[in-house]
Amino acid sequence: MGRFYPFSPKQLQLLSWWHSERSTACCEAVICDGAVRSGKSLCMFLSFFGWAFQSFDGADFALCGKTIASLRRNVVSPLMGHLGELGFVWQEKLSRNYVDVSFQGRSNRFYLFGGKDESSAALIQGMTLAGVLFDEVALMPRSFVEQALARCSVEGSKFWFNCNPEHPYHWFYQEWILKCREKHALYLHFTMEDNPSLSPAMRERYRSLYSGAFYERFVLGRWVAASGLVYPMFQPDRHVKPAPEDCEEYYISCDYGTVNPASFGLWGRRGTVWHRMREYYYDSRIRGAQRTDEEHYAQLEQLAGGLPIRAVLVDPSAASFQECIRRHGRFPVKGAKNDVLDGIRRVADALNQGEILFDPSCQDTLREFQLYRWNPNTGQDAPIKEHDHAMDDIRYFVMEVLNREDTGFAALSLPRATRFSPMRKGGI
Predict the structure, then answer these.
(1) Which DSSP letter does residue 373 get?
(2) Are strands 29-34 and 89-93 parallel, antiparallel or unpaired?
(3) Cα-atom radius of gyration of the chain, to the nearest Å?
(4) What single DSSP character describes residue 50?
(5) pTM for the full model?
(6) CB-side exposure of 241: number of CA atoms within 13 Å?
């Protein structure tokens, strides 16, 4: 299970805040926010299960993530191993999305829910819960969270929230963190220094992954508004390199437009790095004439040349252009993922890690990197809808080809125990 580390004071507080010996036991909720890799998530889940089995027998609970798949992969699978070391016995029902857990003669059921959009609220209606835990609550719609909270009608039920910061106008920050006393919630802010298992070298590695607003949020743990350039980490001397002539696989990404500009990028992988080898960019306002689907397709053929293209990734709203590509029968075509904020985060990550580079010939891409900015007037994270066409097709490519979700947790190692105690020292 890995090395044994003492818990930090902040982690011990999270593990035991609900215990009758603590002055915080009267709180109805706990909120943990702060930096990535700060040890808050795993401690929260261990604490949640310890509280559930000290307080209830035969009760139902909810574990909520952005999606059930990510919740099962990032939380349930690693957590069950740690609980097994502590003497818990569990059985997961994959088809029905719940886990039955037993410990020292008590059994409780934990349902898994994904809160990815507004429609998710309907999934949890009608349940009666003794408690609910939200992993990355800031990524969930308010309607889903509030519906889940309304299901907690069992006497003694409590709410558990964790997240990394977003913008300061976010509904969760406004309604729960700023009003934590009014909500009778314990608020704990974590930094990477609160995770004893994270070495100085690893802390520095995570600091190097982010810049701009993402650095302030994910490293410093601040709820700050995004401002200025969307990609301040883009540096021509680092990211602009001549593309290799031969690559191991190829994709094309497309942001389609008729009145608005159309931007297509040819990508080739050499080793672990993807190169934007060349591009097609057509602005009908500047050129004075619009192009048809067939004319844009002819440029797509020219961009591909004779290369074996694995897929063409197209703006999901461009149904007619997707059909045009299919009709010609040369390229596999796929509607791209269009989650703007997730895509921007992943592109920023790829830039920081040097996963994507740009040939000097991609002049419209280089121009847009210098002009693509956050909108300061929306009260939420949103880029200005200008100079964003190459930025969009790059985002489509990264989300489809490079989007590998982080699946790790800080390592936990505990000696096998026959009795769980939140007051016990030892940690992650």
Answers:
(1) B
(2) unpaired
(3) 24
(4) H
(5) 0.74
(6) 13
